[in-house]
Amino acid sequence: MDALTLHIEPASPEPLYRQIVGQLGRLISAGQCPPGTLLPSVREVAAAHAINPMTVSKAYALLEAQGLLERLRGKGMQVAARKPGASTLQTRLDSLAPALRDLARQARELDIELAQLVDALAPLMADSPTSKDRND
């Protein structure tokens, strides 16, 4: 994994460290960052996204506290070994629940039908660099 895998939006109302925590948590949960994957250093991420290194350090520390990352002396951070059954489809869907609720509310406010929403979402899912077929 490299630092540019992360998509950080400075203009977002969500704090930068939470963006990092959320993205890495989802990548790990989906198995796109398997156990043992070395993460880019704090400095690499900070430099790649022009953000404060303390922001990245805070995100890594939170992920470590959640048991998703582990610190390797002299090597940085890596994805921790998974607990059995930790990455089910339902767990991954549950992590999307807040965003899905917000999307559903906005679609209702804009009077967009479910089929229209699915049609708009399908190409976004297909074009995603991290999308892959999953049959869980």
From TrEMBL:
Domain of life: Bacteria
UniProt cross-references to Pfam families, sorted A to Z: GntR
Residue ranges of every copy of the HTH gntR-type domain listed in the record: 14-82
Alphabetic keyword roster: DNA-binding, Transcription, Transcription regulation
Gene Ontology MF terms in the entry: DNA binding; DNA-binding transcription factor activity
The keyword Transcription regulation belongs to this UniProt entry's keyword annotation: yes
Regions crossing the membrane: none
Keyword Lipid metabolism annotated: no
SMART domains associated with the record: HTH_GNTR (SM00345)
InterPro entries xrefs: Tscrpt_reg_HTH_GntR (IPR000524), WH-like_DNA-bd_sf (IPR036388), WH_DNA-bd_sf (IPR036390)
The protein, known as: HTH-type transcriptional repressor YtrA
Native source organism of the sequence: Pseudomonas reidholzensis
Lineage, opening ranks: Bacteria, Pseudomonadati, Pseudomonadota, Gammaproteobacteria, Pseudomonadales
